[in-house]
Amino acid sequence: MTRFLVIVLLLANVVAAIGVVHARHQHRQLFVELTRLVDERDELNIDFGRLQLEQATWAEANRIDQVARARLGMKFPEAGEIVVVRP
């Protein structure tokens, strides 16, 4: 009977040890994935900041005025060219 109990306890100990090894391996894999995702998030945040800066540059009033004058030939109307339409 004692020999059976020792074998059962030894088997339980081996199963528990294998469970611990598996859990540590899974933890390491998840930690590597977390580190990769954090790095990817940081890169995306940097890209987002760059895009916001680029958008602010393109939407600047002076830039729009320059493009309207240069590419589209637009200009401010003279006083005689302004017509007021009343209902």
UniProtKB/TrEMBL annotation:
Compartment(s): Cell inner membrane; Cell membrane
Membrane topology: Single-pass type II membrane protein
One protein family per Pfam: FtsL
Top-level taxon of origin: Bacteria
Any GO BP annotation: FtsZ-dependent cytokinesis
Keywords for this protein: Cell cycle, Cell division, Cell inner membrane, Cell membrane, Membrane, Transmembrane, Transmembrane helix
One Gene Ontology term, aspect cellular component: cell division site
InterPro entries in the record: Cell_div_FtsL (IPR011922)
Oligomeric and partner information: Part of a complex composed of FtsB, FtsL and FtsQ.
Entry similarity comment: Belongs to the FtsL family.
Job of this protein: Essential cell division protein. May link together the upstream cell division proteins, which are predominantly cytoplasmic, with the downstream cell division proteins, which are predominantly periplasmic.
NCBIfam families listed in its UniProt record: ftsL_broad
HAMAP family: FtsL
Name listed for the protein in its UniProt record: Cell division protein FtsL
Organism: Luteimonas granuli
